[in-house]
Amino acid sequence: MSARRIILALVALCASTTLAVAQTSSAPTSAGVFAGSTVRILIPFDMAGTYGQYAQLAAQHLRRHLPGNPSVIAQQMTGAGGLVVVNHVANVAQKDGTVAMIPPINVIQDGLLHPSAKYDPRGFEWIGRMMELVQLGVATEKSGVASLEDAKTRSVSAGGSGTTNPTVMSWHILNMLAGTKFNVVSGYKGLPDSQLAWERNEIDAVMINWETVVERFQEPIKSGKIKVLFAYAGRSLPEIAGRPVLGDFGRNEVEKAFLRIYTVGAEIGRSVVLPKGVPADRVAAWREGFARMLADPEFAADTKKRNLRFDPLSSTEIAAIVTRSLDLTPETLAGVRVLFDKVLDASK
Which candidate, 259, 172, 171, places its Cα nearest to that of 207? Predict the structure, then answer.
């Protein structure tokens, strides 16, 4: 081969190599981005409850839908009614998309109002929702309490977890806005523990998830052995038709705004978030992968098999709900803070 042909061949080889490198670098940055990684989904409470159930469900199915097919695990980080895990995710956790969270339902209220919250409630990337939460405040037939009206005439013991968790605050809110006389015992690790205490007749009333109703308590409720007192829900739903809903107890604009912030947790339900600061391509990869998971027939079948509620929302839809709840004038927010402080003082 002549020297000229050798030179031309080398030039062509260099050009093709440069083109290949250029094409590779212009490929989508999310492709395989989580390959070899372990992605953690953190939850604020015990694995035995629905936080753990939904985190483990997502961990099992997300691996197929996140780029690079990473290992995905569910991990609990408990404490302070959910504040420990939210403060950690907002301020300490890696901002590379390998740490996600199913936030506590009080994440908005605490971020906006709680003095121990070290985060901005607007400071999360919403990925999507698996289910809308419905909790029922219930009493046993033995307690002698059949309605909230009964709880206005006598002291009724009720149990829950952290001071700002709805399993505790709901009772205090009813005392303040509806004139009930609930005596609240707090500090249970989560719904399973407070529910166990209730079943042992250590307390008269407790809050239970709709999934627990479906699985265990439909017949006792129908027969009247268990009395439904109210519902913690973001809106009226067919399952709770005719039951008082916490959001309906507001008597003025400040109380109504407070209850919107408080009950938005029911609409958040079991959603997934990332902290602010995660690169945009990784946030997009999460949202796309989560949406694919929600649409996956295997995921839907597994949800049904586990008797779990399935009310999915996209990242755009759940973010819009959160944004609306935070749309407050300074004057209204000041009034909401006063009301929150009163409820918090009662919860201590």
Answer: 171
